[in-house]
Each structure stands twice: as C-alpha cells, then as structure tokens.
Amino acid sequence: MFNLFRAQLMKRVGVCMALILTFSWLSIPGPLAGAQAAAGESAADAHTTYNELKSGQRLWKDKQYKAPEQPTVYLTFDDGPSPLTAKVLDILKEEDVKATFFVLGEQVKSHPELVRRALEEGHAIGNHTYNHVYKELYSGAQTFWDQLQQTEDIIADAAGIRPRLIRAPGGTFGNFDAFYFYYLDQAGYEVYDWNIDSGDSARPGVPASEIIQTVKKGPFKNETVVLMHDGTGHDQSVKALPEVIRLFKEKGYAFASLTTEVQPIHFSSGKIKWSRSLTEVGHEQLLAEAGEHMRGLEAAGLTKTASAAGEEEGASLAIVPKGAGKAKDEPLLPLELRLGERQLQLDAEQYRMVHGLEEVPLRPLIEAMGGQIHWDGSERTAVVRYGGYAAEYDFSRHELRLRAGGSLTAVHLPQMELIDGTVYVPLQATLLSLGCRIADSSEENGHMLVRASMSGGFVVSPLY
C-alpha cells in the first residue's frame, strides 16, 4: 500500500516511475483515487474536508438508527478476554442477559475459545485495539488504525467475524480528534463510548460494593451503556455483576447487545491530551485505507442496517452473529438451493454450520451458478471466473482478489476456509455478493430450502 501511495505522489509532481513489481499483472487504483472515491470527493473537496477536520469539525455519513421499544441497557465489558470472562459468561447465561465484549487483540490470541463461546451464547464482540497502550494508540490515527486491523485479523482467525463495533481505550474524550472519528466512520465502523461508568477501573481492586453504588447513581437513560471490565484483576467486577443486573431488572430495563442499529454515544471533544499532527498526504493515505475497508463491506452486502424481523436478510452477516441457527446437538438438514432454474443439493455432511451461518463448498456453488473454478495448487489459490469477472481466493496470502473491468480490489483475511482440499464460504453472504436476490428460506419435506434469483453479473464477496 505504501509503495502504491508513493507512486501516486510521484505522478502528481511529474516523476514517472514504475513501482508495481509484485502486482505488475494487476491494475490497482491508487490510494489517492481510492480516498476521493471513498468520500465521493474531488481533489478540491478533499482539501476542504481536510481543513474542516483539522479545525475540529466532526463529519459523519448520513445514517439511521433504531430506538428500542422500551428502556434498554447495554452491558459492555472491556479489556478481555481473560479467565474472568468465563465467569462473566456464566452469570450472563444464568441471568438470561446479552452483553457486548470489547476485546483486545493480544488477549484474543491467548483465549480465542472465550470469544467463540461469547458468540455462540448470543453476545456481541467489539474491537478494543491490540494492546491498549495509550501513548501508541493516540500518537496518531495511523497507529490506531493499524492496531484495529491487527486485532480484526486476530478475531477473524479466532471466530470468523470482523466486528464493526469499536471502543477506544480510555474513551474518546481527550483522545480522539475529528480525524479519528472520520476515518472509522468512512470505513463502516461504529464507535461506542458509555453513559454509566461503573468505576471498576478507577484504581486497582475497587470493591464490589463501591462498583454497585456507582452504577446506582445512573444516569438511567432510555438507552444506557454501562462500562465494566472483564480483564485480569477485575474479580470484584464479576462479584458485582449479579447485583448490577438485578438493579436494571428492577427498573424495568431490557438487556441487549450493541449492534450497528444502536445510536452511538460519543463524548465531547475536550482538549486533546496528545501532541500529534497529520499532513494532508497522511490524511489521503488513511482515507484510502478506510475506503478500501468500506468497499469490502459493500461488496459483501454488509453495510445495510439490519431491520426488524430480518427484512434486510443477510445485512449483518458475520459481523455480530446472534447465536441463531441450530443447536450443536441438532442434526443439520440436507440443503437445497434453487438458483432460478438451476439447483444445488447438499447432504448434511457436505456443508457446515458456523455461528448460525451455513458455510458451503465453493466449487459446487460456482458450478451451479454456471461459472468456472480452478484450483492452482502451486499458489494455493482458487480461481473463479464468470463472464468478464474473476475472483482469486489466495490461501498462501489469505487474501481475496476481485477483478472486474480492469480494476482490482484486494481484501486481506476474508472469511474463507480451506478444509481437506475444499474451500468453504458463507452461503448467504456469497449469494448476496454474487448479485443474487434471496427470496426466502424454509424447511420443506425434511430439507432446508433456499430460493434465490440469478444475477446478470458476478461480484464475489470479501465475506467479512
């Protein structure tokens, strides 16, 4: 990315160089073009945006959020997973309460099974950066962005999801400037602060009784986000949790996990605690990376806001799994996929259920679509072709490259698996990204039946 970006800069000052060595056979739009495309801006507009952000003005995409029908509390736990997370999950399960865990990448590497368990039990996972070191994270937006991507990759490896929920270590007050918010918004993330701090990290060993009394002070809003911690050393937070839950139950609150439908809480700006600066060139680079991330979400059909009763089917696939799907001990049904006049039938042993989502083998799916697929063993890459489009699932780099009309989009660590020589991809997300419109799915005559209309084009999903 850096070399491509440098090439764009040299072109702008009239220096002609050829830096595309590794990917010389691909046509890849440069970062500056990607940045402007991401924001839909001309060069002049991009310059204006940079100056507005530099002045401290926060700029946002137009979005719609859904207010809950009754007062709702969102319990959130930061800095895990740790051995204490298992105890938190036990309490939440006993109380029939859903929560959100903002996890650190370095902790996920040590306890991936706890992330998987949280997802299986219906909780949401958010990204809390890799190491929680303030002086690194707030030295500049690029470092913060890099830590988010590092953690996102780790979570994807551990649990097969890429969260869009973000929490800044220490909160955004005094740490985030307008640039930080802007890049995350452009990339399709949502940043969540809180309106009740339990005070469990005010100092080491805050007693459970003090945590409970702090929470009792409120404020108790229609949508209340409570900050707690499940990292090492927060045994008292675990001890206080049942009483915190009882408090909100007595006040008539519903409990829910955060999703991208929930209106985010953002702290006011405050005086930035850190000395940093961002050049216009650096701004263009970061905006390009944010735009690339957003294009991956759009290609996967994951940028729509999921509505009630699943009106936008697949809108939040693989982002915040809800624990839906069959129980572990419930056998899968044979799967029948009807693609217009074409059909694909898979026995229960031929596909997988992962976090409530069907994963199917790529080859029979593509062939049922009328496309072609070839496995290049030397490159460990599955090459898919359909009309004038191509996609390459590269397991040596763990990357998906999408090509159409002479342009290319590369997505690092997409959700794809290679098991005993078979490439598996999530069914619904793949169908959506292929341009197919899913009509309905139901159980009929002992089969799981999915109906979808065929598309005229072919765009393979990054499968975030």
TrEMBL record:
<dbReference type="InterPro" id="IPR002509">
    <property type="entry name" value="NODB_dom"/>
</dbReference>
<dbReference type="InterPro" id="IPR012854">
    <property type="entry name" value="Cu_amine_oxidase-like_N"/>
</dbReference>
<keyword id="KW-0378">Hydrolase</keyword>
<dbReference type="InterPro" id="IPR036582">
    <property type="entry name" value="Mao_N_sf"/>
</dbReference>
<keyword id="KW-0732">Signal</keyword>
<feature type="signal peptide">
    <location>
        <begin position="1"/>
        <end position="33"/>
    </location>
</feature>
<dbReference type="InterPro" id="IPR050248">
    <property type="entry name" value="Polysacc_deacetylase_ArnD"/>
</dbReference>
<dbReference type="Pfam" id="PF01522">
    <property type="entry name" value="Polysacc_deac_1"/>
</dbReference>
<dbReference type="Pfam" id="PF07833">
    <property type="entry name" value="Cu_amine_oxidN1"/>
</dbReference>
<feature type="domain" description="NodB homology">
    <location>
        <begin position="71"/>
        <end position="256"/>
    </location>
</feature>
<dbReference type="InterPro" id="IPR011330">
    <property type="entry name" value="Glyco_hydro/deAcase_b/a-brl"/>
</dbReference>
<protein>
    <submittedName>
        <fullName>Peptidoglycan-N-acetylglucosamine deacetylase</fullName>
        <ecNumber>3.5.1.104</ecNumber>
    </submittedName>
</protein>
<dbReference type="GO" id="GO:0016787">
    <property type="term" value="F:hydrolase activity"/>
</dbReference>
